[in-house]
Amino acid sequence: MWRERAGRPGPERGDEAPAPYDGHMPDEPQGQQGPGRPGGPTGRSGAGWPRWTIWVLVALVAASLVIPSLLRSDDRTEFTFSELFEQVETGQVEEVTFNNASGSFNGTLKSGEEFKGTGPTELSDTNEQALKEAGVEFDYTRPSSNWFIELIPLLLPITLLIGFIFWMQRRATAGMGNIMSIGRSKAKTYTTERPKTTFADVAGYEGVKTEIKEVVDFLKKPEQFAAIGARIPKGVLLVGPPGTGKTLIARAVAGEAGVPFLSVTGSDFMEMFVGVGASRVRDLFQTARKMGRAIIFVDEIDSIGRKRGAGLGGGHDEREQTLNQMLAEMDGFEATEGIVMMAATNRPDILDPALLRPGRFDRQVVVPLPEVSERSAILDVHCRDKRIGPDVNLETMARGTPGMSGADLSNLVNEAALHAVRRGSQEIAAEDFEAARDRVLMGQRRESVAMSDAEKEMTAYHEGGHALLAAVLEHADTLHKVTILPTGMALGVTQTLPEERHSYRQNYIEDTLCMTLGGRMAEELIYGVTSTGAANDLQRATEMARKMVREWGMSSRLGPMAFGAQGQVFLGEDLMHTREYSDETARVIDEEVERILREQEDRAKALLTEYSTVHELVARSLLEHETISGDYVRDLVTQGGPSGDGSGDGARPQPSAPTKNEPAPATFREGRPPSSDL
Description:
By secondary structure, the protein is an alpha/beta fold. The chain contains 22 helices and 15 strands. It has helices spanning about 55-70, 80-90, 125-135, 145-175, 205-220, 220-225, 245-255, 275-290, 320-330, 355, 370-380, 395-400, 405-420, 430-440, 455-470, 505-515, 520-525, 535-550, 570-575, 585-610, 610-625, 630-640, and strands spanning about 1-5, 75-80, 95-100, 105-110, 115-120, 135-140, 190, 235-240, 260-265, 295-300, 340-345, 365, 480-485, 490-495, 625-630. Helix 13 packs across helix 14 and helix 21 (about 610-625) packs antiparallel against helix 22. The protein is elongated and about 145 Å long. The N and C termini lie close together (about 10 Å).
């Protein structure tokens, strides 16, 4: 457990939920697209012509009009109408043709040279007489008009408009999907192109894999189970904290299943249109029925499987209709043989009871936080492609990370690799894992924070109070190290080594409370006043003491009674919630919480007074070295002893650095381990 001294009375550093555990595996190939889904980026918009077809047609029409005029070359001599008849009078013209429609003329001179020109549309009698006297052969022509050419100026704008509308419609179809197929399922179907993840890639969790393998084996060899009358579970619900590998296990099922595997997330069923969710559920199960035997996996099923009637929306909202349809498909009037439903959630408490009953989800498989051996196997998986130094012992690292999920361990290995690169190393050493563990648990060290000498001294006495009590209390967690370097949102941190417990005794909780309040009592003893740095300590201590009274029956005044937990999940349940005890009992609960806190506060004050000399030495060592190890503090306690008892010679031992090649177990954060609410 680690204690932090807040830098200001604002929000304390919370505990973020780990990211979903996706495992250290090769990239998952894209499965086949479900029905009604647009294809990938192939340059085509669904079925039909490519999108660029309309632009090619427009370019061809423009080219047919422009290119001929560019390619046509005309090297004929151009005459005016007067020059033409000057040539006629001199006898140079052989023949000439007049266009009555445009007034143009062209012809040939006696020398063989061609000419052209423009004149009146009709020749006068005088001009005709002159041509006849000169012996010039002349003729009139009126070319017939091309109706297609005349229609082009009218058809071209209409064609462009129709093409633009057609192009916009195709784009809308590609973006939204066909409006008529909006109710089709978005599930990805894996048949031949399966993910490369297998059960061998899931480290640990042998019991979980055994239960999941039974379902896969039943679908592969149903006759083996049918011989003794065994019936396949219709549904398997994976339950566990975030980051424990529920989705990874589902990917392993998809990689090893001998039947089609349909994967979908709970949010894929929801849409802005009414009735779409129920329609997609129907389409999903219809698709699975056509495949004969299949596995349907719904990730984050709590997004659609929440309790009906909770909240102010009544029973007519879209989410509840989607849930109703799923309940009917899983175990309704029509039988669905050969279809196994798998789902994953980290909130089983909010799921509808009708969804959890046998016949729908027959089997609930708990995926807990990994134990020591499982953490070692997970670390080994994530270190396969890393260059690890010879001083790194993954088993020791596994013992030093209790309460961490698979996602936490993946992040730990990656942070260690980044730290090794940052310090210019070619491999990941034990010190990189130690720095990464501190980074994950306590946050990034804030080098830019410049504390005054008075603030640094108060922080040293505050953290020294935590460290001293952790060293002298019999049932408290073992002290690992203490620092006054600003880290995360804290100005100082005291880190302890929790054992891997699954239940907690009252004496352990009381010693933990005493240590938690040690920093505040140290400030009061030294300065006569307290500061805002103990805000986080008070919050944790109050929460723990209230649970002792209300939930764990550790109050002799109230006896063995549990009064329930506060905080309902839904607003509707909160409105209908009635308190199960009287106002007098509530007053007694508050008094008992106050009594427990004050008793541990007085106890911490007495111990700090008894070991005041050691407390002073610890604070001065922190001011000098900024970070000291737990062994150093224990040496001070052993050599210094209680003040005034004559034990110890007061000699000051040399500080020893925290061990780096054997990182100590990390503190659990709130919610870890899952068997306790500490």
